């Protein structure tokens, strides 16, 4: 009886020690969850989630402070990715819940006739995509604009407008055939001889 | 015809798909070719349209950059757009004429979007200028590359990839040059006609390229449904060692990878180019264009175009100038009905509709197809028959790809090797449910590319945002550092200048004090507080009273015209005594004030301002009093005879004037000193602006504070930070005003004196 207890006690100690050692020795370094979430966010630093940028939002999500569905520009694709990272069920987008219209990528456009060169938008731009100086007309570097709309409310003359990005033959893509009536005449079917 | 081939052909009557065993690559389909529509006619005579529309981008890559201006006359073969950096080719004028516009016009592109084009109005002269292509015949890959780039040659089979980019950089990298004359798309016969009419150009072009890149072998692959072309090519190739091979007719035999496999048995790996396995393929039209460039130094300005379709009465092939609108060519082929339906660029399998009939022929336009619209069979659900899989020439799983593309699972479609799809359309062609499969793949490819771009953009935006934050941080730190440095400098200077101020306070020149006062004013723009105000007012009132008294005295003395010279002298002596006394007293008070200032002024920086105001007020009043006196004197002098001894009187007035100036200076000195103690030294070189008048005033006054250490003081003061321009200007203005007031006062007095005498 006593021997059995001692044997099992010894076994328990040995195995426990082994497990403890293994836990330290073979520890798997998981990538920090904040980094992972930050990497799927669109990085346009718009603040529409209620946090001052993409990284703060990623931190808030990782800490369980924010919901996974607050990234409006990222849309459903980003929400699904965050849901996967956080191991939670997907949720409909907050903007969609609030009944807001979700639109495609837009870029800022400055009506140069109205621009007074106040520098406010330049200070607001999170990616330095607006150029100009005091009392000189400002303009947007189209290529760098993320469409975060942070420059729109700060403009004292309301001269900034969000416009859809122009499509050129170079960045045009074939439309989804499901949303389209077939346009190409079907090929002439060849009869087998 | 081998035994195997004979057997398969026989078997094909029972089992049509047995024909797939005749070729080396898998899949493929057998559409109705309808090539006889256009192939039975000879080449049509060239036409000259009303305008030529030359898109800046007729190739894969970066659009060319225009080198002509609107209204400029261009000649045939002139380069009108230069290649942009990167993957680009130039554009040349197809005929002589005037540049009508450089504007956005619809392109023969599936998007139908407009893009930049150079529009030329031909003048009908067809006058050629200098050849833009180098005269020297190429001999090495580099010179060949240069020549092909200068000639603006791109892949003319339909892909439009700049040909110079396909060439290897070294000799010997390519062992076999392949020439593609398969032309597998239905309806299209332009390559067939080219091979029939210009076999020599093609063979010589191929030989030229092979010579330059060091290829040992040249194989021309021609589908066996073009017997005339085969015959012509074989004749032209006789004795040149060029191997002309007939390949089985199957769609898509003309695909680069398919024909390569058929001719050489080598399957080009998925992510590799033909160059990587020692092969290079050119279309027959490209080879002919290279020959024209090498032999005649002609750039690519025209090409053979098939104009065909069920809707045309006289389908044909024509040598069309690049930029010719589709409509002009279609009208030559006599449409059976008005062209109110969309034309197709390319063949029925891979071609696409164009947005309107005005789009131009570009370097990749091999066919204009006018097929009146047929009823469209709606797509039905996939029945998983697997026909598409059998038809796929690149061994993909079209059905699986369709399901994933349908569900927008882009990563899964990509895993099924979506990017190996050549978009040949065989799957759509065989689909019994009429599902436009190839459209799904095209869309999926576009979406995946867009996603990748977006990801790259996100990464870019993240970096920019981080840079932005870093910049803000840096700017903040810099600002703090600057502020700190400034503070320290001020402290240091304060420590240096305070004792010297004490030591020299009595000996400051009026000019320096004026500067200090001006500086103080500039620095303390805010108005004085209520207490300061009252103090200042009181002072001003006292000052004014003193002035008034002095004026009265003067008036009294001058009011007595009957005074004897003796009396006058006495009075003058008296006055001089009084003056001296007053001056002494004032000096004493100034000194005591100066001594008091540091303790007095610490909490009261606005005092100086108030004092200055008071001084101004006083000066003004003084001036007014003098003016009044002068008027009075003028009145009295009319009836008085000029007494002798006027010299004395003049001297007296002069002295009075000096005294006034001295008082003024002393007052200013006191204010300045106080201010300076307060400020601990931001002295300026602005003092140099001070006019000699004021200096003279100070110098004139024998009793006023001397200026022994003025220069010395100035030197030490100049060390301090220079003030802003604004404060300098203000100081100068103030000084000028004071000077003017003093001058006015003196002049008035002198005038009165003059009148007196």
Automatic annotation (TrEMBL), chain A:
Q: How is the cofactor bound?
A: Binds 3 [4Fe-4S] clusters.
What the entry lists under Pfam families is as follows: Fer4_21, FeS
Q: In which residues is [4Fe-4S] cluster 3 bound?
A: 125, 145, 148, 151
Q: Where does [4Fe-4S] cluster 2 bind?
A: 115, 118, 121, 155
Q: Where in the cell is it found?
A: Cell inner membrane
Q: Which GO terms describe its cellular component?
A: plasma membrane
Ranges of residues in domain 4Fe-4S ferredoxin-type? 106-135, 136-165
- List the molecular function annotations (GO) for this entry: 4 iron, 4 sulfur cluster binding; electron transfer activity; metal ion binding
What does the record list as GO biological process?
Answer: electron transport chain
Q: Kindly list the cofactors needed.
A: [4Fe-4S] cluster
The main location is membrane
| Residues where [4Fe-4S] cluster 1 binds | 46, 49, 54, 71
Q: Which Gene3D superfamilies match?
A: 3.30.70.20, Electron transport complex subunit B, putative Fe-S cluster
Which terms are listed as keywords in the entry?
4Fe-4S, Cell inner membrane, Cell membrane, Electron transport, Iron, Iron-sulfur, Membrane, Metal-binding, Repeat, Translocase, Transport
SUPFAM superfamilies named among the record's database cross-references: 4Fe-4S ferredoxins
Quaternary state and interactors:
The complex is composed of six subunits: RnfA, RnfB, RnfC, RnfD, RnfE and RnfG.
The role this protein plays is:
Part of a membrane-bound complex that couples electron transfer with translocation of ions across the membrane.
Query: What NCBIfam families does this protein's entry cite?
Result: PRK05113.1, rnfB
- Name this protein carries in UniProt: Ion-translocating oxidoreductase complex subunit B
- Tell me the name of the encoding gene: rnfB
TrEMBL record, chain B:
Superkingdom: Bacteria
**EC number from the UniProt entry:** 7.-.-.-
Q: Which residues bind [4Fe-4S] cluster 2?
A: 392, 421, 424, 427
Q: Where in the cell is it found?
A: Cell inner membrane
Here the segments flagged for biased composition (Basic residues) are 738-747
Q: What class of enzyme is it?
A: translocase
Cofactor binding, note field = Binds 2 [4Fe-4S] clusters per subunit.
An MF annotation (GO) of this entry: electron transfer activity
Membrane topology designation: Peripheral membrane protein
Q: What does this protein do?
A: Part of a membrane-bound complex that couples electron transfer with translocation of ions across the membrane.
Protein name stated in the entry: Ion-translocating oxidoreductase complex subunit C
Q: Which organism is it from?
A: Sulfurivirga caldicuralii
Q: Which gene encodes it?
A: rnfC
């Amino acid at each position: 009886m006593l021997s059995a207890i001692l044997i099992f006690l010894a076994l328990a100690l040995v195995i426990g020690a082994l497990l403890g050692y293994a836990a330290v020795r073979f520890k798997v370094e998981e990538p920090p969850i904040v980094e992972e979430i930050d990497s799927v966010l669109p990085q346009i630093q718009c603040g529409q989630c209620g946090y001052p940028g993409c990284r703060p939002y990623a931190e808030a999500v990782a800490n369980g402070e924010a919901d996974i569905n607050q990234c409006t520009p990222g849309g459903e694709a980003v929400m699904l990715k965050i849901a996967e990272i956080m191991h939670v069920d997907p949720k409909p987008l907050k903007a969609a819940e609030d009944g807001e219209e979700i639109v495609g990528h837009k870029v800022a456009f400055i009506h140069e006739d109205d621009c007074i060169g106040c520098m406010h938008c330049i200070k607001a731009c999170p990616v330095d995509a607006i150029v100009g100086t005091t009392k000189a007309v400002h303009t947007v570097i189209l290529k760098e604009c993320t469409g975060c709309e942070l420059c729109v409310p700060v403009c004292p003359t309301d001269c900034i407008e969000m416009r859809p990005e122009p499509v050129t033959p170079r960045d045009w893509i074939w439309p989804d055939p499901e949303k389209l009536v077939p346009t190409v005449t079907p090929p002439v079917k060849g009869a087998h001889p | 015809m081998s035994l195997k081939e004979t057997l398969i052909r026989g078997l094909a009557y029972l089992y049509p798909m047995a024909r797939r065993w005749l070729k080396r690559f898998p899949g493929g389909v057998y559409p109705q070719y309808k090539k006889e529509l256009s192939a039975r006619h000879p080449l049509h005579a060239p036409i000259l349209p009303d305008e030529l529309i030359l898109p800046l981008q007729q190739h894969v890559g970066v659009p060319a950059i225009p080198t002509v201006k609107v209204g400029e006359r261009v000649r045939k073969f002139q380069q009108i757009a230069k290649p942009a950096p990167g993957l680009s080719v130039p554009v040349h004028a197809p005929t002589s004429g005037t540049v009508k516009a450089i504007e956005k016009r619809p392109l023969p592109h599936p998007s139908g979007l407009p893009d930049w084009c150079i529009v030329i109005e031909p003048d009908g002269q067809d006058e050629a200028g200098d050849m833009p292509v180098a005269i020297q015949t190429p001999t090495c890959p580099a010179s060949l590359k240069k020549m092909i780039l200068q000639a603006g040659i791109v892949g003319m089979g339909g892909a439009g990839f700049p040909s110079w980019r396909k060439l290897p950089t070294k000799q010997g990298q390519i062992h076999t040059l392949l020439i593609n004359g398969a032309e597998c798309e239905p309806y299209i016969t332009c390559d067939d006609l080219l091979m029939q009419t210009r076999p020599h150009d093609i063979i010589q072009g191929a030989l030229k390229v092979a010579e330059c890149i060091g290829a040992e072998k040249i194989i021309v692959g021609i589908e066996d449904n073009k017997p005339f072309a085969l015959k012509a090519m074989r004749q032209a190739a006789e004795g040149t060692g060029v191997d002309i091979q007939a390949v089985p007719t199957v769609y898509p035999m003309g695909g680069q990878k398919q024909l390569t496999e058929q001719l050489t048995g080598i399957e080009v790996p998925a992510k590799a180019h033909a160059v990587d396995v020692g092969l290079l393929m050119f279309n027959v039209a490209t080879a002919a264009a290279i020959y024209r460039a090498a032999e005649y130094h002609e750039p690519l300005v025209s090409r053979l175009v098939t104009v065909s379709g069920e809707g045309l009465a006289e389908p044909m092939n024509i040598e069309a100038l690049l930029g010719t609108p589709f409509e002009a060519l279609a009208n030559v082929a006599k449409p059976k009905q008005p062209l109110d339906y969309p034309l197709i660029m390319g063949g029925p399998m891979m071609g696409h509709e164009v947005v309107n009939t005005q789009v131009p022929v570009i370097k990749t336009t091999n066919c204009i197809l006018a097929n009146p619209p047929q009823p469209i069979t709606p797509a039905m659900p996939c029945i998983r028959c697997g026909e598409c899989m059998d038809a796929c020439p690149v061994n993909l799983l079209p059905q699986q790809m369709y399901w994933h593309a349908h569900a927008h699972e882009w990563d899964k479609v990509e895993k099924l090797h979506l990017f190996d799809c050549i978009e040949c359309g065989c799957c759509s062609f065989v689909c019994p449910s009429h599902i436009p499969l190839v459209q799904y793949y095209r869309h999926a490819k576009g979406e995946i590319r867009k996603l990748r771009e977006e990801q790259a953009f996100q990464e870019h935006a993240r970096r920019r945002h981080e840079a932005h934050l870093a910049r803000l941080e840096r700017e903040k730190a810099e600002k703090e550092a600057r502020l700190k440095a400034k503070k320290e400098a001020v402290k240091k200077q304060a420590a240096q200048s305070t004792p010297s101020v004490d030591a020299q306070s009595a000996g400051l020149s009026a000019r320096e004090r004026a500067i200090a006062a001006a500086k103080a004013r500039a620095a303390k723009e805010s108005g004085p507080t209520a207490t300061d105000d009252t103090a200042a007012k009181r002072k001003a009132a006292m000052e004014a009273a003193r002035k008034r008294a002095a004026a009265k005295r003067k008036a009294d003395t001058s009011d007595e015209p009957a005074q004897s010279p003796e009396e006058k002298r006495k009075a003058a002596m008296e006055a001089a005594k009084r003056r001296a006394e007053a001056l002494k007293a004032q000096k004493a008070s100034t000194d005591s004030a100066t001594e008091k200032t540091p303790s007095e002024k610490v909490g009261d920086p606005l005092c100086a301002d108030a004092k200055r105001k008071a001084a101004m007020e006083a000066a003004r009043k003084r001036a007014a009093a003098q003016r009044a006196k002068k008027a009075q004197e003028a009145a009295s002098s009319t009836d008085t005879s000029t007494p002798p001894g006027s010299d004395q009187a003049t001297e007296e007035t002069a002295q009075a004037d000096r005294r006034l100036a001295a008082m003024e200076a002393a007052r200013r000195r006191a204010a300045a000193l106080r201010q300076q103690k307060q400020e601990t030294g931001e002295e300026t070189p602005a003092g140099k602006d001070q006019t000699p008048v004021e200096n003279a005033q100070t110098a004139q006054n024998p009793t006023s504070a001397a200026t022994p250490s003025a220069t010395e003081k100035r030197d030490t003061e100049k060390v301090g930070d220079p003030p802003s321009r604004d404060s300098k200007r203000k100081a100068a203005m103030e000084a000028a005003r004071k000077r003017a007031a003093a001058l006015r006062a003196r002049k008035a007095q002198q005038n009165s004196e003059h009148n007196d005498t």
